[in-house]
Fold these 2 entries.
Entry 1:
Amino acid sequence: MKKHAGTENRPCRSMLYIPGDSPGMIQHSPAFGADSILLDLEDAIAPSEKDAARKMVSTFLDSFDFGSLIVTVRVNPADSEYFENDLKEIVPRTPDAVRLPKCNEISDVRAADCLIAEIENDNGIPVGTVKLHAMLETALGIENAFSIAKASPRVAALTIGGQDLTADMGVQKTLEGWELFYARSRVVMAARASGVSAFDTVWTDINDIEGLAKESKQIAELGFTGKAAIHPGQIETIHEAFRPSPKELARAQRVVREAEIALHSGKGVVSVAGRMVDAPVIARAEHLIALSRLYDYEEDGGGLA
Amino acid sequence: MPEISISKTASAGSVESSDCLVTVTPADSIEIDYSGANKKIFEKRTEAMTRAILAEYSVTAGRVHIQDQGAIEITLRARIETAVERALEARLP
């Protein structure tokens, strides 16, 4: 069973895909610097190796110390012959989450939710321990984003699968990414409205770091909480896109400080520099400060007070 | 406990670094054949581990060949189990 190192509510900016049958990469995963890893049983694995990958991932979840890494397993789709066996082997080992591909409707999530709950029950694990990340990779899935996010409390994230989605839309994935603009916005809004995380799709050209940097910045500004990576070399660039600016950080620190003072002096309303500040602003400031702890802020004088 | 013999050849794994290639074949008793760059250090450990895994599957006869490319124990276990399960596949319900 995976040892949990307080991974709940930790910022999860990067999620590195690792093929489930690549023991060399799995054993080195804590050294890559990603916030989380996605052990893949789906697209990265040939049909003849599905059993081997499932066994490899299960055995690592049983005995390997992933440290503070958030560990998610991408299982095969519900309509595949591998799906049930994937869940039966993976869920008892309690990864942080299972990533469910091709979620099109509420019923997809509910069916997986029931099966996971049954396995949790059979194994004496509290129901709801293993979270679910719903992957939206069809036009239908995108249009149902909000209802999918609300389908079960187990859903902890919406994630957009750009490759399959553009194929379903009958368009090309372009460098600018306008074809995904609506889908991304929709996913972010649905995720925010339902209080779950929003993860962006992969940047497939591992040699184009500049393109990755641009896209990462764009999706961070759109409101995504993290982005998937297909190569360890992409992690640093993704993290950079989520770096709070020293100015933002200073403002956040001030908001939190003033809020604390107001709380202690029994004031119901907080104002910072003459402007009223409400609970969502304070929550965002706290999140920003948590995020900034992942970066080295000492050197440029923007350090925490 | 039923006594099970390996009756068909199966393999799992690869010769990539940090992996291992495990092949199980029919034999009259348990035979373990280990090769790897650090044979001296790891042969005994791997043999004990392999026997324990075979016992978990109630296998009492079969030859296990392990070509170790620097796999950690977790990887060895996963590959041995996969190879054994593949060899026994026809028997499992």
Entry 2:
Amino acid sequence: MMRTARGRPPSFYVLATLMIALLIFLYAPMLCVYILSFQGPDGGMSFPMTGWSTHWFEVLFAGTGGQGIGDVPNSFKRSIRLAACVSVLSTIIAVSAGMAYRRKFPGSNFVFYSAIASMVLPSIFIGFGIALTFNLLGWQVNWFTSGIGAQLTWSLPFGLLIMFIVLGRFNPAYEEAATDLGANSGQRFRMIILPIILPGVIGIFVSSITSSYEENARTQLNVGLGNTMPMEITGILTGASTPVLFAIGTLTSLAMFAIILGAVALMTVMARRRANRPDA
Amino acid sequence: MQLKKAREIDETTHTGRPKIRQVTQGHRFDVELVRVTKSYNAKSKAVDDISLRIPRSSYCCLLGPSGCGKSTTLRMLAGHEEVTDGAILIQDTEITTLPPVDRGTSMMFQDYALFPHLSALDNVAFSLKVRKVSKAERDRQAREYLELVQMDHLANRLPNELSGGQQQRVALARSLITRPKVLLLDEPLSALDPFLRTRMRAELKRIQKELGITFVHVTHSQEEAMALSDIMVVMNDAKIMQAGPAREVFETPANAFVARFIGGHNVLMSEGREVSVRADACRIGAMPGMRGASGTVTMVEYKGPFVQVSMTSDTGDDLTATMTDAEYFAAAPQIGDTVAVSWDPKAEHVLS
């Protein structure tokens, strides 16, 4: 490969160009959405901008305004409510399961593969299957039974896999040392294991929020009365559209970035609190 | 009650450092292994029917090649590995099936296993914290032990802000604060660079003498074992080959394995028996009244005060002769030279 005395090889420029193209491909559409969400009141779904305003955000927050925005605020509430329950449950179950899987137990393979299978199977079938089962048993589908259940089939396997990776890197000598120093199993978990794996646990929590919030295929037949955000947006898309849709996109992105930044900030603060102990 | 015991023995030595010597009296041996076996399955045994007695306040090294069962033995002592058969006693009390914390042992792990999210001080104070000792009291005691290992100035550092040697000192303090009757060390020096290793070695010995408790130290370095041991246990193939004071093991190795493993010995056949001859008892050149062999020089290593000459004898044995530099340079045989080597028949030690 050619390489000038000090410069970078030509391949660097080729790869850098490719990388920039990829970044544009990834982020340009999002950027368009953010810009178009500030479209003037008379503007449409595409460029050019007819002026700058926060009109479409106002329409969104005004509630059911009839301008093709459906029932977004309530859908948002339902989605958040669902995401909160699912992420808490996923985190608790995934951490417990991860701890259990540090030792082989009878049937461990079966449980593992059945968890992974639900990740691999087409979502729509799983959603349909759950709805059908509820129907067969004469139960009413409802967000806090079948809804949460359906979403767990999606978020839980991911949580479990993250947990396997986290605990796979966990040095078992930490736990042996804690045992040696007299800690019982509760103290070992609370004082040693959990603090060390905490970044992974926060990761499971945040990824569960995201996977619950965006899940549609498994959720739609099982959530009962009232749309969630993905269902609502699909509805808006198929109906008459206004830049309200972009306002939703902008706010959603903001909320998701806030969650991620919040998680990162939390971890940074924890790291700093450890490092900045008062010197005695 | 273990803490109360800790309190009664604080006195200040002439150096001004608190002395934390522990009382160990009224028993003969700090550690006794009685026909201990560890097997993971029917076929293979990690430790095969070993018995060992370690006298009070000894520095004991378990020495052997990797896979010889020395680490398993240590882990059984610590209670991190179940004993398949046999019994373990600590200061005349059987502890074979007791949980680690009730044994009076404390283990220092090979990679130290310092809790990465806790400062040096909190690491050392951990065992007191799980026993619900008040914060002021556990910090005070932890500082005392950090002083013992000369780490009190870095008490608030996290483990990853400490060097390997410093981490080891903290790990040592964390183990000692439980006031163990026996401290177990799993290859404690293997992660350190050679300079630090020699220094920490002296430090370990100093602390063992100062505390007056028994240390059981697993190592694969015969040099380390000889430098430290009051009692040296050579293991191979799940069995104890020889146990005794370092000098006794070196001067009278029990068998060919021990002689070869601890180094500095030639193992050869003499008058139909297998014998060992110390390399420093061998001389280059044929001498009257001496036993001898002849061979080809394969390696000459100059080590400053002495020179080590390796050769292959005519019968195919590997021989080494160690001599002072003056003796060597008198004849100065080179690689490829054919030389005679001789030794006093009295220097032969018969192996079993």
